[in-house]
TrEMBL record:
Species in which this protein is naturally found: Falsiruegeria litorea R37
Gene3D superfamilies, per the entry: 2-enoyl-CoA Hydratase, Chain A, domain 1
Annotated keywords: Lyase
Gene Ontology biological process: fatty acid beta-oxidation
Name by which UniProt lists this protein: Carnitinyl-CoA dehydratase
Secretion signal span: none
Record-linked CDD domains: crotonase-like (cd06558)
Enzyme Commission number(s) from the entry: 4.2.1.-
Gene that this polypeptide is encoded by: caiD_5
Length: 260
């Protein structure tokens, strides 16, 4: 299951399915519903995504989840009309809705232990600043079973250099936290007992900023990827002026006091 907790302006999503926090189809639906609530809650300014325990962030999808027997025709029909069968216990399912959901509110990722497959995809897709414990291990082992396509689902080549993405996707080997940092998959590596404190410090810093400014920064950054330079500059200018027209020009009171 997933645990969703709020404290002040920060919400924590914890993947909790021992022993290695694998995802079931039901948990993907739960993730979708949690993210909907997280995005809509005006009192929540930032999130933290982590895994329960110290053994795994998430080892990916539960390959032992029972799938219904389907004919080839039913499989093709389901692929072309997925919304007809989102209530069934199989893949693909709600994970598709999670991965395509717009999100303009920051999430800090905190990974410990195994971070594989769908867990690796969620860690990278659903977080914006990422920390790893020294015991974290990352990988996309599905290629060894003929299961490809994760690179496109994650747009991994937009996150890290091409050769680094190919190393993860085609070799299917596991990398430790230090190498993940060198590949710019995570911002920093910390001791396991410092992981959540580090994530909380980052989330609190983000939550201390005016939420409208953070919202504009997130959306303009994301949309700018698919725009020409001139269009990106125009969009950023429009969003900036829109936000500034309804926000005070002075910095937060805490910064004013520090400056004095």
């Amino acid at each position: 299951m997933l645990n969703y907790e709020k404290s002040g302006h920060i919400a924590t999503i914890t993947i909790d399915n021992p022993p290695v926090n694998v995802f079931t189809p039901t948990m993907h639906k739960q993730m979708f519903e949690i993210l909907q609530e997280f995005n809509a809650d005006r009192d929540i300014y930032c999130g933290i995504l982590t895994g329960a325990g110290d053994r795994a962030f998430s080892a990916g999808d539960d390959i032992k989840s029972k799938r219904p027997d389907r004919t080839r025709e039913e499989i093709v029909d389901r692929h072309l009309n997925p919304s007809r069968s989102f209530d069934t216990q199989e893949y693909p399912g709600w994970e598709h809705e999670v991965m395509t959901m717009p999100r303009y509110k920051p999430i800090v990722g905190a990974a410990n232990g195994y971070c594989f497959g769908q867990g690796f995809i969620y860690f990278n897709l659903l977080s914006d600043i990422r920390y790893a414990a020294t015991n974290a291990v990352f990988g996309m082992p599905e290629i060894a079973y003929g299961m490809g396509g994760a690179g496109a689902a994650l747009s991994l080549g937009k996150m890290i250099p091409h050769v680094a993405a190919m190393e993860l996707l085609l070799l299917g080997e596991k990398i430790d936290a230090e190498k993940a940092q060198r590949l710019f998959l995570v911002n920093d590596v910390v001791e396991p007992d410092k992981l959540m404190d580090t994530a909380w410090a980052a989330a609190e810093r983000i939550a201390s900023h005016p939420p409208m400014g953070v919202r504009v920064e997130m959306e303009s950054y994301q949309r700018g990827f698919d725009m020409s330079r001139s269009d990106s500059m125009a969009m950023a200018g429009h969003m900036y002026r829109l936000a500034r027209s309804v926000q005070p020009t002075q910095p937060p009171l805490a910064e004013q006091g520090a400056a004095e």
